[in-house]
Amino acid sequence: MEKDRIKQAYLAYVLRKGTPPTSVFKLTEKLELPEAEFYRYYPNFEAIDREIWADFGRQAREQAAREPVWADYGAREKLLAFYFTLLEILKQNRSYALQSLRRSMSRMPGLTPRVLDDFRQDFETFVADLLRTGRQTDEVASRPVVQEQYPRAFWQQALFVLGFFAKDESLNFERTDAAVEKAVTLSFDLVGRNTFDSALDLARFLFQSSRR
Q: Which of these, 95, 120, 144, 188, has the minimum number of CB atoms within 10 Å of its CB?
């Protein structure tokens, strides 16, 4: 398929040169394709980067879900499985991942890199589904006022994980694995039933009792 040829040729070029081609013409010339063929599939090179990152996320979700134990996992374990699978994929593509993140971050310091736009949308949908299931099993507390914002909060966690991975120099990225465990544990401690919910229950009880 021509689209896959274009994507793979672009990826190979970035890995060899450390930067995207100077023009679409340069890339399609090497592939012996008319330049117009590129624009049938992508508007620019940034769109390829976004698709590659979306592919990383999709592959991580699909691979994790194929594990026999997936069906028995709660929301916390499923998110951990996703992260660990994603990290394995990123280890295999670390040079490209770091290059594309750094290019995007240099243009938008302090913000979500545009290269992650499609990855982010898929991730937030995935997390929203996990949390919805978690509420059904009481793993996640029902908090109608704030729970709609949870996927965005978990996205900040994902950015933390990616940033930690990008800077990690430990053997086999063991420190990133530990950071993932701690971050996911903290997030589910916060969205699970905790002291805050007990305080709310008491406040409701006292309020209702005072009106009788």
A: 144
Computed over its alpha carbons, how large is the radius of gyration of the chain? 21
Alpha-carbon span 32 to 36, nearest angstrom: 12
Where does the chain show beta strands of DSSP type E? none
DSSP 128-187: HHHHHHHHHTTSS---TTTGGGHHHHHHHHHHHHHHHHHH--SGGGHHHHHHHHHHHHHH
Model confidence at 69: pLDDT above 90: yes
Rounded Cα distance between 208 and 79, Å, is 38
Judge if 188 and 101 occupy the same domain.
yes
pLDDT of 146 > 60? The answer is yes
Same domain, 19 and 84: no
